[in-house]
Structure formats: C-alpha cells, structure tokens
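Issue: copy button drops trailing tokens. Both records pasted manually instead:
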Amino acid sequence: AELGQLASARVEEVRQRLRLFEDHGHETREAAQREAFLESRSQLLATTLARLEAAEEVTDRLDEFVSGTCNALEGRVRVIEAEIEELRLATHKRYFDQFRTLYLTLGELTYRKEQNLQEIEKKVEMARIQQELLMESLNPQAKE
C-alpha cells in the first residue's frame, strides 16, 4: 500500500512535471510568437520613421524653395514698385510742365488781351474826342 501510494505520488509528480513542461512549451511558443510580432512591428515602425524623416527632409527643402521664391518675388515687386514710382513722378513732372506752359501762355494771352482792350478803349476815346473836335470845327453851333 505504501508502495502504491509512492507510485501514485510519483505518477502524479510526473504528470505535474509533464503539465509544467507543456505549459513551459506553450509559454515558449507564445514568447516566440510575441517576439515575431514585436519584430515585425519594430520593422514597420523603423520603416515609418524612415519615411517620416524623408518626408521631413522633403518638407524642409520645399520650405526653402518657397521661401526663396517668395524672397525673390518680394525683391522683384520692390523693383517694379520703384520703377512705377519713377514713371509716376516723370509723368507728373511732364504734366506739370505742360500745365505750367499752358498757364503761362494763358497769363500772357490774358495780358495781351487786356493791353489790346486798353488800346482799343484809348482809340475809341481818341476817335470820340476827334469827332467832337471835328463837329465843333465844322458846326460850331452843334455844341449849344
């Protein structure tokens, strides 16, 4: 009986060790699967990081290109604005000179007109005086 108990205890211990061995094998397989999964995820993350770095590099280059283009355009706009300002000033000066010439001509013509008007008035007055003198000398009674 004691030997039977020892045998059954021994059988039970062997079964328990077999279960532990199977559990350990199961855990080893799970660990291997977990490690394979983590390795594939690690490779995917490394690929993603490489792609992100490449995208960042492309973005930096694009930013440099856009900044350079904007700076070049800004410089060109300044040059064009300066040219437009020069043209505006030249046009303004030309119109001002034309206006000044016309204004001076108008002043001169107005002066001549006034001089001619005064001369005409003097001639009319002289003609009236001559007419009166002639009337008096030809017909002395006309004055009365």
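Record 2 (pasted manually too):
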Amino acid sequence: MELLNCFKSKTDSINCLKIYKEFVIVAGDDGTIKIFDLINGDLQHTLSHSSNGEEGIDKFILHQHKIIAVYTDRSIRVWCLKNNKLISILRGHNDEIELF
C-alpha cells in the first residue's frame, strides 16, 4: 500500500473528518475547521471564529453546502461552504448536543 498524501497544518487532535466533493474537512480541539484538497493535500481554507480560543469542536455534519459544528462550549456554529463564512452561532444549550 502506497501513501498518496499527507495532510499537514493541523496541530491539535482531530475529532472529526469528512470527505466532501474534492475536499477533506477536519475539525478538532483547536476550534478550527480545516479544508484540504483531497488530491494534492494543500490547505484550502481555515474556518475559525473563537472568542477566547478555548472552544474545541466535538463533531460536525455537512448539510446543503453548510458545516454544522458542535463546539465544546455547547454552541453550534453554522458555516457556509460556498463562501467559507460563519452564518450563525446558536447558544443556550445546557446539555450535550447530539447530531443526527
């Protein structure tokens, strides 16, 4: 078996990974979502919006060109994959957030 690619630029733990079209999307303890080119491994985008730098990402799902991410501060952030912008932050959850 031959190693085809090595994705660099993620320094903390990776908690979730998804393949979307020609991209690999990873998220983890540093609170960032990194989008890599699946073919050449180049980092394409970093999505980050942390007020204090302490919120990690527990999990995320992809839905209709959006990333819906659950953060360790019990917030949900919705990112648009078309323009790589934060759409909204949902707060007020008191317990663990489950994704479908």
